[in-house]
Automatic annotation (TrEMBL):
It comes from the Bacteria. Keywords: Membrane, Transmembrane, Transmembrane helix. PANTHER family: BLL7967 PROTEIN, IRON-REGULATED INNER MEMBRANE PROTEIN-RELATED. The keyword Transmembrane applies. The chain crosses the membrane at residues 7-27, 138-161, 194-217, 345-370. Residues 231-255 are annotated as: Disordered. InterPro entries: PepSY-ass_TM. This is Putative iron-regulated membrane protein. The keyword Membrane applies.
Amino acid sequence: MSIRRVFFWAHLVAGVAAGLVIVFLSVTGALLTYERQIIAWAEKGSLALPAEAGAPLSADALATVAEQIGKGAATSLVLRDDPAAPVTVRTGRSNTTLVDPYSGVVLEDGAAGVRAFFDYVTRLHRWFAMEGVARETAAAITGAANLVFLFILGSGIVLWWPKKWKWRLVRMNLVFRRGLPNAKARDYNWHHVFGIWALIPLIVVVATAVVFSYPWANRAVYAAFGEEVPARSGPPGAAPLANQSQGNARMDGDPAGQQLQAIVDDAKLRLPEWRSITLSLPDAAAPVELRVDSGTGGQPTRQTTLTYAADNAQLVSERGFVDESPATRARMLIRFLHTGEALGIIGQTIAGLASLASVILAYTGLALAWRRLVTPLLRKRRVELDRRQG
């Protein structure tokens, strides 16, 4: 048996074994393509901005509102450059409250249903929305499916690679062909066309998923740069802001003394292209940290963390993407290359289209496998039945 034939059967068996899980991951991944933008759009609908809105409240006043809302446990404020966008008060890692930046009134969260939908789809995507011990089993299945999918993509390259590089032969696999004689020929053509055009994005999406799925893959990323895996202290791909894991027991309960608005104003001057600012709500004497984002929210290269002294609002340090270690930068990019967000809205779109392409790849691959493996058996059985009846 030739090497090419070995790859063919390995490719076919892997596709049949993991095909349905790959379809599930691809569909849920496609649904998550514009999650960040859709939630932001839904949140804007929570704020009915009147013509006489006036100037927004200061960061100090908003911090006081946040403390009242969170009962002393609020961890951060998210300010946006859009005057029609509400301020987000975060308590812990996941609880959010929307606040009118002009009045400080708590708003009805128009994005609650949208956020719940995406949260459910995310849990489906990661572990079939299972809980407890079943979640570990589901995560093992999705992780294995990603690893198998990566092999399918690699073996697909081997099978596609032309024996002779002639444009006429290559072109047959690059474009949709008309007038094909049957569904088998159509599926074969589609399988190659979608596979070739989506190959590079899919390799990126799937390979990054493998890093999430297996500790050894994550360690390999750091080992490639000669570094050790750091202790987990926050969401992958983002440096945690100060005090986000605990409440903010201020000594005097008066954020105005910490000159938060002066700090925010200075940050805006330093980074005039800012689109959102996540302001930590520190303890009384703790430094104040701001994560300034000039991108879409998923571009680590466009995020900068500024640290200020609480007593005099003077900048203590400025840390951006280039200041991180090589392995940390790679890991941050991996986190957002998986969703395409590292490349902005265009990257998200490419990742979403690649996910949809993988659904078609799985369908056409399973259809071709059915015709090769099952149809002959059914035909043989039908012939035997006809012989017995005759």
